[in-house]
Amino acid sequence: MIIPGAETQAFGAALADATDERLGRVEYERFADGEHVVRVPEAVAGERAVVVASTVDSDAHVQLLQLQDAVREAGASEVVTVVPYMGYARQDQAFKPGEPVSSRAVARAISTGTDRVVTVNPHEPAVCDFFTVPATHVNAAAVLADPLPPLETPLFLSPDEGAIGLAETVRDAYGDGETDFFEKDRDYDSGEITITPSDTPVAGRDVVLVDDIIATGSTMSESVAVLNDRGAGRVFVTCVHPMLASNALTTLSAAGVEAVYGTDTLERAVSEVSAASVVADKL
Ligand code: R5P
After folding, report:
1. Residue to mutate (ligand 1; options 211, 220, 250; most atoms within 8 A of CB)
2. How confident is the model over 168-182, as a mean pLDDT?
């Protein structure tokens, strides 16, 4: 049975479709003091329970742990945990003295309630090593090619070298075009992003920017500004995890993007495509 977290209901339904497993109806409530309580009213004893929850915020983390515990308590024979978007994954080291390795802390907590874990495009695949149960990750970037219209001399571009593999995946799925990457520097005190473009000509070309996540939108909007300065044609902004914190979508629209596409690992207005079928192959 597929057991979705409150913030991951569309993904849960898509995963139930893709796997032909039953979609469990979950009740999400809060006590008067604000604490969460979840309920899984349907019988799950003796069957596999697949808990699906993006840990988009601290509340979602708690709900995920509760869902794991609820299905174990109800006698599930196996608990598989799917974390389509793993929160805190980008704090994969103590960047400043005194800081935690947050991704290790949350991975250990998630491991206590499950037999195995599947996650989607973590910022660094090595984060899977922090789980104390078998953990694997899938690359869902190929689905980002689906909503793209026919493109003129397309260039699939990542804002930094670390995401070039994602740009290549989307290009391969689209079936045509070049790939390249920019260089990105982030000032960790001010948060300011500096983008240094490559020499690849962009004038008049349709450009598809690809990254794992859009958080504040600074990385993408700075990249779009550089592309516009250089006379690019239409600029499409794509990512696996459309976090789109605060006014990120407005920032991108103001930068002049043609469209923003993300997957449903985070359920947002731009979640045009589902990563569920890619996850289903690992279940
Ligand atoms: C970092 O390297 C990631 O791949 C993303 O580029 C980054 O997290 C995006 O953040 P923001 O949207 O805040 O610039």
Report:
1. 211
2. 97
CATH for 2-140 is 3.40.50.2020
| Ligand 1 site, residue 111, Cβ cutoff 6 A | no
Structure tokens at 230: 């250089």
Average pLDDT along the chain: 96
214 in contact with ligand 1, CB cutoff 6 A: yes
- Look at residue 269 in the predicted model and tell me its pLDDT: 95
The pLDDT of residue 9 is 97
Q: For the chain, what are the domain ranges?
A: 2-140, 141-264
Q: How far is the CA of 202 from the centre of ligand 1 (A)?
A: 22
The reply to whether CATH 3.40.50.2020 applies to domain 141-264 is yes
pLDDT attached to residue 282:
95
- Over residues 42-53, the mean pLDDT reads 96
Give the residue among 208, 207, 212, 209 at the shortest CA–CA distance from 266: 212
236 vs 134: CA distance, rounded Å: 36
Structural tokens at position 47: 């069957």
